[in-house]
Amino acid sequence: MKTESLLFLFFRRMRLPLIVLISAYAIATVGFTLLPGMDDQGNPWRMSLFEAFYVVSYTGSTIGFGEIPYDFTPAQRMWTMVSIYLTVIAWLYSIGSIISLMQDPVYRSGLRRARQSRGIRSMSQPFYLICGYGDTGRILVRALSARGYPIVIVEKNREKVDTLEIEDLGVSVTAFVMDAQKPDNLVTAGLRNRWCAGVIAVTGSDRINLKIAISAKLLNHTVVVHAHADTEDAAANMRSFDTDYVVNPVEEYVRRMDLAISRPDMFRLYQWISAGPDARLSRTRPVPAGQWIVCGYTQVGRAVAELLERRGMTVTMIDPNPQGPGRPSGTVAGRGTQAETLQAAGVESAVGVVAATSDDADNLSILITARDLNEELFFAALENGFSTHALFQAARSDFVAQPSAVIAGYMLSRLSSGLVEPFLASLMEQDDDFARGLLAKLLRHQDEAPPELSSGRISARRSPAIARALEAGIDVPLGTLLRDPCRRDSRLPLEIVLLRREDGDILCPEDDEMLQIGDRILMAGRSRAARAVRPTLDNDQTLEYLLTGRARQHGWVWQWLERRAKDTGSLGTH
Hints:
alpha/beta, Helix Hairpins, Rossmann fold, disordered C terminus
């Protein structure tokens, strides 16, 4: 609600109370000017308009300074009592109306929204607009706030927004209680603000996410849009409107399981980079080949069954409705939570079980029951809600998919840099040996926490020192960026994983690759380590030290000594 609308609502609600208050003061003031008084000489005297209003002001507020400038006559004292009751009642009525207005949910909501809008207009650093504050939204808010980004949330469920009151996020978080699918609401939340770095649509509805993506692209052509889609049709529709990043958790789950089957080291690397801030390098068992049991003919269950069959495995489906549309022949009736059902599906001779029902309690029950029947099974599970995460960890699943974590991890990796997507696309074209080698490089610099991805550009504005050196004809090897600016023989805990040029991308380039103007670089390494590269990009003396080993002095005394040395041959000549 705009400020103009709030003022209109205020004066509309307060119109009658203000009329009553003004009328009461007017009547009391006019009465005092009409009633005759008596001065100290006994002569008739009447108050001026100013004196009358002054008396009404202190009597109406019950302050009571006294009878001035002369003692009142009985008639004036009688009118004083009338004025007191008249103005006090008018004040009580007016104050009560104001209190009632302040308690009105519509007015309070509008007042809060106007205050939040002013705060967004005053922002002076990049922020993210997150639409939807469910499990995925919470993960994204915590991760982005940990990186220091202000957050704006649009969520129409007040109960979810109220949980932010107890969150200690350390950065500015503005939450609007309104419907994100309305374009005007997105504009109110800062969509057109020049500091809006990205719009993230993670509501529980594909239709709403699509509307958000369309609105964002039409109202702000430069903003980067990330959207979640549960179906292939919705994902294709979002991409047709140039949505920058669209994640389908089912597609992502199947992609990761396919990598785990065919290229386990590539899976570990991809999962490590794309699984979110709390991810750790997995130690997944090799996915065995043979007979599999898939419990639940859900979207995930169907997709996993199709993947396993493409990989040459035998799949038996368990579903409460075995005769339903699309069910494969041989589907066993049941939920998979009972031993009889799993035995009918051949659990004793199976190599793996996939618990993919829409109920987390059933999925946990399937895993526990199957483990009792065959301890050697490979256990894969779908974790529908994030609240049961600890239970799935305790159940010791070999492969768990949590849609909220998958979506958040996918988006967070892409939020780091626009080079992450082409890097991962190039990485997927490599074999397992390449992935194993890159894993070994990255693990030299850190523990099992995922590497931080950051990017830079070689240009006069972004890296002036290197740009000046290149324009002067000086070769600058790529490995120069990885040297410690304080100790050139030491290497920063970083690796350059992608070099993008107009003529093509270079995946994991060698240190002796020469930099060129226009190069874009993606680095991966220890958290905040990329900040140490900044002096190399900006400072000519730092770059010269890293290239030559010579640390130049900058004071005017040293400059004078250098000039004298050139004239005499050396600094030590006398």
